[in-house]
Design brief:
This protein is of the alpha+beta class and about 290 residues long. It has three domains: about 110 residues, Beta Polymerase, domain 2, CATH 3.30.460; about 110 residues, Nucleotidyltransferases  domain 2 (Four Helix Bundle (Hemerythrin (Met), subunit A), Up-down Bundle), CATH 1.20.120; about 60 residues, Winged helix-like DNA-binding domain superfamily/Winged helix DNA-binding domain (Arc Repressor Mutant, subunit A), CATH 1.10.10.10. It has twelve helices and seven strands. Strands 3-4-2-1-5 form a five-stranded mixed sheet, sandwiched between helices. The protein has a two-stranded antiparallel sheet with strand order 6-7. The chain starts with 6 loop residues before the first helix and ends with a strand.
Length: about 290
């Protein structure tokens, strides 16, 4: 942190009153045309992230105009911010942590989160790998279904998103935290996913052919990396030595970011004999499926 700003000064700067019980605050100013800055800063002079222990909705957003300074204040609770660090779903929050000035941090919480991202140790890497693999798989399957139905543009949109998750996965595999401008990171790596992105967007082949080529590349990448990318889930299940239903797994906060994708991931892991499907009869008839590591 380069200097500390009192909350009274921050209140004057933004025109908003701040709770002194807040865990911390970070300020991101607009600085030229930095490619890594959030697109949100195109309309605001600064974004202020205020961290709380808990918020009823997990987050609140306020816009402020003080003189000629236009600001946006993001009130975020700790769970929501930690989830954003893993999923990358909110570029503004990540940009504030990585590029902004930490202006209020009495307990060192924001600095600790920043250092966790900078160090990018294995626990965080494994969690991000799993999330990105799950989302890559989900969008790949959607693209396949759309192209089978003849919905070419929808298939294109889904495979483009799949490549984005592949890009984040590949950056993570290289030991780097996937930043908001992830394609700039991938370009520096001269990686296969960047070449596939160019093939998909500028190749002379028909759109359908380009989509199918990208689908094949995604499938090959996923099949070859499934065990490694899903090690967070597999190790978690193995340590507990039980069978788990999808619903039981989703009760754990670690898996809630992939609530939509988890059933599909488990089926794919079962098809590759990385997990075992265990059937049990339910009261009143029918069969319930649970999963255990092979």
């Amino acid at each position: 942190m380069e200097g500390t700003m009192e909350l009274s000064n921050l209140t004057w700067l933004s025109g908003e009153a701040f709770d002194e019980n807040a865990l911390g605050a970070a300020l991101l100013r607009r600085q030229g045309s930095s490619s890594s800055q959030s697109a949100l800063l195109h309309d605001f002079d600064m974004v202020i992230l205020v961290l709380h222990e808990e918020l009823e909705e997990g987050y609140q957003i306020q816009d402020s105009l003080t003189g000629e300074i236009r600001s946006q204040i993001l009130h975020v609770d700790l769970d929501s911010l930690q989830r954003s660090v893993i999923t990358g779903d909110n570029n503004e929050r990540i940009s504030c942590i990585l590029e902004g000035d930490i202006i209020w941090d009495p307990q060192g919480v924001l600095e600790q989160i920043r250092q966790e991202i900078i160090r990018f140790s294995k626990p965080l890497r494994d969690r991000i790998l799993f999330v990105e693999f799950a989302r890559l798989l989900h969008m790949y399957v959607k693209s396949k279904r759309y192209i089978q139905a003849g919905c070419i543009m929808d298939a294109y949109n889904c495979i483009l998103v799949a490549l984005y998750h592949w890009a984040r996965l590949e950056v993570t595999e290289q030991g780097r935290y996937p930043e908001p401008a992830v394609w700039e990171q991938v370009k520096e790596l001269n990686s296969s996913v960047y070449k596939m992105y160019e093939e998909l967007t500028v190749s002379g082949e028909t759109l359908e052919q380009r989509i199918q080529l990208a689908q094949l590349a995604c499938e090959f990448s996923m099949m070859s990396q499934m065990g490694q990318s899903c090690s967070f889930l597999l190790n978690w299940m193995k340590e507990r030595g039980e069978t788990w239903s999808v619903q039981e797994l989703l009760k754990h906060s670690d898996f809630q970011p992939v609530a939509l994708e988890l059933p599909l991931v488990l089926r794919k892991l079962a098809s590759r004999a990385l997990v075992q499907e265990v059937a049990s009869w339910k009261e009143g008839g029918g069969c319930a499926v649970q999963y255990a590591v092979c």
